[in-house]
């Protein structure tokens, strides 16, 4: 079985550099990190997670707490987290909170009780209770949503700017009555997308009307119900998630409406099916996989240095991809 010394010899670096590279340390030169990664792959080296756990008196497992594992956006985040964690010798425990604060709290308690090495989470609300983790000094990184109840690293997307751009696009296409299907109040991304919707209307010289807005869960059923209420009033919609958009498209089909021609649609998240429908769906694509990777690297850094640096917030940009659903 290959050892860390074998990896160091093949990569032409010190064992300390190998250790830092495997733990995702940002201080490792990218060229050296790539040499280490190639050597690990060639030798089939597996880090001794158990030995490291005994030294740290914690389990070489990370918890990933997300709100909906069926949502392709969170699935891509999970893959990014796992890819990075596995390369550093950590396993990932996937927890689905279902936007339920009680369920989320149980997973937080389990992570603390089992002395997991760290937690990446998309908080149900900005006030999600993570005291069991902070009490045990368990490192936390949030992804997609902010957490106001604890100081920790965060990886976010500029949802407000993305929503603003989407609404401005719909306005330039000639749509007059642009509505918004937003997520539930108190969820930071939902609030930010609604703020961006207002910004976009203002930029386009349009007045905001609460009658053209519905707030619901990030679910297919929520999107269907909201669209059912809004379709008689709007000729375009900004939809806050791809799962909601499935419900919106169902509601449109029930009424014989076609996207683009009858109702312009822009949806957050570039789901795998977005280009398989006709017309293809215009989307606000978020870098979900990259977000997961960065969140994992930040958490691994925290595990290594035990909070020696200030908390950071990284905000990534989304990309508006224009397709047929927003083109009259």
Q: Would you write up a description of this structure?
A:
The chain is an alpha/beta fold and 328 residues long. Helix content is 44%, strand content 17%. It has 12 helices and 12 strands. Strands 2-1-3-4-5-11 form a 6-stranded parallel β-sheet, with helices on both faces.
Key terms for this structure?
328 residues; alpha/beta; 6-stranded mixed sheet; 12 helices
Q: How would you describe the shape? A: elongated
Distance between the terminal alpha carbons, to the nearest Å?
62 Å
Number of helices: 12
Strand order, biggest sheet? 2-1-3-4-5-11
Helix content: 40-55%
CA radius of gyration is 22 Å
Strand content: 15-25%
- Specify the biggest β-sheet: 6 strands, parallel
Oligomer classification: single chain
Number of distinct beta strands: 12
Low-pLDDT runs of 5+ residues are 53-57
Average residue pLDDT:
91
Return the string of H and E elements: HHHHEHEHEHEEHEHEHEHEEHEE
Give the helix/strand class: alpha/beta
